[in-house]
Amino acid sequence: MSDNAETAGSAEFDEKTRRDFLFTTTAAVGAVGAATAAWPFIDQMNPAADTLALSSTEVNLEPIAEGQSITVVWRGKPVFIRHRTTAEIEAAQKDDKADLPDPQADVDRVQNTKWLVMVGVCTHFGCIPLGNKSGESKGEFGGWFCPCHGSHYDTSGRIRKGPAPKNLEVPGYKFLSDMQIRIG
Amino acid sequence: MSDKQMHPVMQWIDYRLPIFTFLNHELHEYPTPKNLNYWWNFGSLAGIILVIMLVTGIVLAMHYTAHVDLAFGSVERIMRDVNYGWLIRYVHMNGASMFFIIVYIHMLRGLYFGSYQAPRELLWMIGVLILLAMMATAFMGYVLPWGQMSFWGATVITNLFSAIPWVGDDIVTLLWGGFSVDNPLLNRFFSLHYLLPFVIIGLVVLHIVALHQHGSNNPIGIDMKTDQDSVPFHPYYTVKDLFGLGAFLIFFAFFVFFAPNYFGEADNYIPADALQTPAHIVPEWYFLPYYAILRAFTADWFVYNILSLGGFIMTAKLMGVLAMFASILLLLFLPWLDGSKVKSSRFRPVHAMFVWIFVLDCIVLGICGAKPAEGMWLIIGQTATVYYFAHLLFIVPIVSRLERPMMPPESIAASITAKATG
Q: Which segment of B210-219, B250-259, B304-313 scores lowest on mean pLDDT?
């Protein structure tokens, strides 16, 4: 095109740029159209409306004695709810200053220091850590231990040792009353 | 087969659609090096096992139900109630292992005899893509019975993508179609598990087209120059391939009939339970070396700390994931990493030695992948991981450029005459 443009008069030169303009806009509109058409085929993979609708769970805390934990299912994942002992709370608060891979204070992880609520899914590759049932290994820090690749979590669910990069996730939850919470 | 030998009906068709000419050209006349050894049987074996997997898979899909509540039961029904269901499923299940055994030997052949070198670089690279497609297919197929290993394997592998910075969690949600591994994932895995084998067929067609452009490499790695160097594919190699197939089918049948669960994990006969992780999650044997590489990268490993500048660039988890993918993708560059002008390791004793050490290293990685990632096994796995990358990135490029190869024979025919008289 440039060869012609050099030898051609200005009128023809204008015609070339107009053609270039048409070419570019056609390609641009085509690309936007293709991307728009592709989006439904990508977004259909995201959670469907009925999956999203099942996204909250209510839990009654009354039956959980001090030092006991329960596991409830929320969005298909286990949620650990632990009624912590005073010793555990103290240990967790004392370790706020320890060398933490993912630093977070214990008070930022709980709404009521007695109740630790978190998603029971290891932040490494998604296994379920042990330690929520009595008799299971609680790891070196008295919290939870993931058997898949050896991650140790403390009494605040913070990662202390092993390959997991982050603390156990605290889901959004709300105390509906002293002994009733809603997760999600 | 010339035009005159053809049946008139075949002639009529061939004049309009030259299918018979094509088959004759590619499977009958096709000149093949006359010195191929048994390492060259594994290409055709891979093609045959692909067909076996397709046939058994299509039949299994007629009885399988892709739903979290019904999948496990439908597989058990195949095993107990469907006529010959047990046979078809065991063939399919063990066929996956056979496919990987064959393909790994096929790749070792390529590594040892330098089959990836010019002008067969694209042939090799298409092969690597076939391996990747096979791995995706095998992984998704393993999820379908919805046993404990299915479920937790799917959980661990999909969670690999959460290592991607910023968008990782969104990608995992997209893959799951929910907030955990559940029915949407099982459905899409079934759909893709059915689709991908046909993608593999497409890649295999390209692989064969690229192969037939320059013909097979051979044990001495010298191109065919005259008619003296080759024999027609049929009957010489059709017969040899059939013999190899017979031997292979005996090996295959042994596992199907006498040790059908040898390659499997007992835990996969426990229905999936989202609230109970098995004590020890292991992938299928053919993924173990990559699994060992994935797990080698721990936050306190000095190699990780050097490469990530003390954890500044990326997490250990992300580096493990990248290393695992890199371990396969690096093979794409092998034709250029190897700078030798001589293909076959027969004339490159130093390179040959390193090829065998590399094979040993892959086996060691496989053993480490099967063991818990702690103590001595972690250290061995980390060392073997370093060696894996050192082989591809340093040893091959340097040795191939420094080693002075022995003088190969003048031609394929000459090498055979020399052997006969010498």
A: B304-313
Residues of B in contact with A48 (CB under 8 A): 177, 184
Residue A157 in tokens: 């669910």
Collapsing DSSP to helix, strand or coil, B271 comes out as strand
A23-77 per-position pLDDT tens digit: 999 999 999 999 999 999 999 999 998 888 777 889 999 999 998 999 998 888 8
Residue-wise over B48-84: b if at least 16 C-beta within 10 A, else e? bbbebbbebbebbeeebbbebeebbebbeebbeebee
Mean pLDDT score, B2-16: 85
**Measured distance CA(A67)–CA(A84) in Å, rounded:** 5
Q: Please identify among residues 148-177 of chain A the ones whose CB lies closer than 8 Å to any CB of chain B.
A: 148-150, 162-165
Query: With an 8 Å Cβ cutoff, are A42 and B174 in contact?
Result: yes
Burial degree of B7 (CB within 10 A; 0-12, 13-18, 19+): exposed
Q: Of A177, A161, A180, A174, which is closest to residue A122 (Cα–Cα)?
A: A161
Kindly tell me the burial class for residue B415, based on how many C-beta atoms sit within 10 Å of its own C-beta (0-12, 13-18, 19 or more). Answer: buried
Is residue B297 within 8 Å of residue B317, measured between CB atoms? yes
- Could you write out the three-class secondary structure of chain A? CHHHHHHCCHHHHHHHHHHHHHHHHHHHHHHHHHHHHHHHHHHCCCCCHHHHHCCCEEEECCCCCCCCEEEEEECCEEEEEEECCHHHHHHHHHHHHCCCCCCCCHHHHCCECCEEEEECCCCCCCCCCECCCCCCCCCCCEEEEECCCCEEEECCCCEEECCCCCCCCCCCEEEEECCEEEEC
From B44, B115, B150, B216, the catalytic residue: B216
Residue type, A144: W
Best B275, B276, B293 residue to mutate vs chain A (most A CBs within 10 Å): B275
Which chain B residues are closer than 8 Å to A54 by Cβ?
A: none
Residues of B in contact with A162 (CB under 8 A): 298
Which candidate from B179, B275, B277 shows the least CB-CB separation from A75? B179
Angle between helices B183-214 and B121-143 (to 10 degrees): 160
The ipTM (two decimal places) reads: 0.75
Do residues B414 and B420 make contact, with C-beta atoms less than 8 angstroms apart?
no
Please state the length of chain B: 422
The answer to whether the Cβ–Cβ distance between A76 and B279 falls below 8 Å is no
The answer, yes or no, to whether residue A11 has pLDDT greater than 80, is: no
Please compute Rg for chain A using Cα positions.
Answer: 28
Distance CA A69, CA A80 (A): 7
- Report CB contact under 8 Å: B277, A127: yes
